[in-house]
Amino acid sequence: MKRLSLLPISLGGLLCLSSVQAQTSSSTPPIGFIRKDCPANSDTRVSIPLERQSVFIGPITTPSGSLITTQGNPGWTADEFKFSATSQKDTYYVLFLSGAKRGRDFNVTGNGENTLSLDLKGDNLNDVVEGDRIKLLPHWNLDAAFPAGEGVETSESALSIKSQVLMPETDATGINFAASETFFYSSSWQKFGGSADGSRVLAPHRYMVVRNKDQATSPVFVGVVPSDYQAAPLRVPKGNDKQDNLVSLNRPTPVKLRDSDLISSGAFATSPSPLAITDQLLVFNDDQAAINKSASKTYYHYDGRWLLFGGSFAADADEGDEVIFTPGTGVIIRKAGTGDASEKTIYWSHDDPTSN
Known about the structure:
- This protein is mainly β.
- The protein contains 1 helix and 25 strands.
- Strand 21 (about 295-300) and strand 22 (about 305-310) form a beta hairpin.
């Protein structure tokens, strides 16, 4: 097994800094941490490029519909991985490690002694075969990411909110949509306009927005360093519409544009001309203290090169060495429709950078 040493992370002077450390032995997965410095009076896009500890890794038999069965019998208690607002507040998911569904994840809706029922969300397991390997693990949620409110400023009440965590609306259609839910910590995690809810899921490949008032915060996330192939879903709109995808790259090391696999995986379309841009990549400057900030830079791909919107598109212009995907941040991928009659989903796949 590879050994990961101290990995100092530089975000090019951004106020929202990240640092990662990882270590492993022959019997344990790499464990790391990331610190995300979030300034006062500002919105900071925050993702968690680490996983929570898995409870099962192994092969399965041929699935039946949305039901998968492990090879062997782990002896699970019935529905111990099924979410319950009163008794089991973790939401578990299955990540496929091999086979046709490699890199994709599905939430668990129930389980038996050696079976898992999955929410396929319109997908199917027809191309999954016996021997494909899975990992079973819990999602990050507010309680796990910010235990007892660590990393945010505690609010006295809903009438005097300090730090907020905004959850962007990932199912909305179109662009520039607002957050769908807002949470704050006051002795427990509370949903603004609702009730206590520390079980709110922070899904893989997504980011949240930490909105601080007059005090900077530095949440620290500790977890397993993901070394698996990833497949982040991206929505492609119907017709000639545009669709914002609010995403992150779950890697604990910085990744350059040219190494992001956005082009090689087919997830990002190359524009036919700098005057006819299709897909766009919007990035944000966390060094700028502001609420509801706009993108600081927008990139597109043309003629085999990454270019900056509004910048040069001469033959020698190339922004491919820009380190855009820093640990713990988020971006917007604005997909352009290709004229299809209905929306579709494609996958941004990215291999483990330590596997080469």
